[in-house]
Amino acid sequence: MKLPESLILGKSIGRILYAAGLASSASDGHRLAVQQGAYVGAAPGQKAGTNKGMLFGQLQFTPVKAWFPQETRNFLIDGKLLILRKGKHNVRVIEMVSDEEYARLGLTYPGQPYTGKVRKLNQKLKDLKAGRVQPDEVDLGESEAALDDEHEPQYDQTHLVFPEPKGRQQEALEKKIKKHL
């Protein structure tokens, strides 16, 4: 998985765990770090500020502790790979890429600023009210497809796919947008 440099080197380990899919929220990621429920690929027994890395050819894990965001650099392998683990088998190998490359690839991660569903719906509603967008140009994307059969399972070739439940705020915004259409 790829994550941007600004996240890896500038945010807390709790946010990184959330973005990597090892925590259900940033606060859950922070709790994992404080309770040492997550692990980072590093030489065991070394503090975040003085970690020298692992021996070549050996992968060892040490419990994640709450450290300063700039100390994450000490756990990078070859200056670009970060290995995180939660539990026994839930492992993520994260490649750090530049912010420009991440944006060029069109990738997003959980908790990424300015990419939430509610924020996007609010912006569409503002554009509609201001007249910057015509009603026929508005695309609700996933939300529009899920309006008809909100809780009906959709069939894939291999398994059932259930749509994600919507929050009250998202439903209210969709209704407002529908009124303007």
From TrEMBL:
It comes from the Eukaryota. Residues 165-175 have a biased composition (Basic and acidic residues). Residues 1-113 form the Tyrosyl-tRNA synthetase C-terminal domain. InterPro entries: S4_RNA-bd_sf, TyrRSs_C. Gene3D superfamilies: RNA-binding S4 domain (3.10.290.10). Pfam families: TyrRSs_C. Residues 143-181 are annotated as: Disordered. This is Tyrosyl-tRNA synthetase C-terminal domain-containing protein.
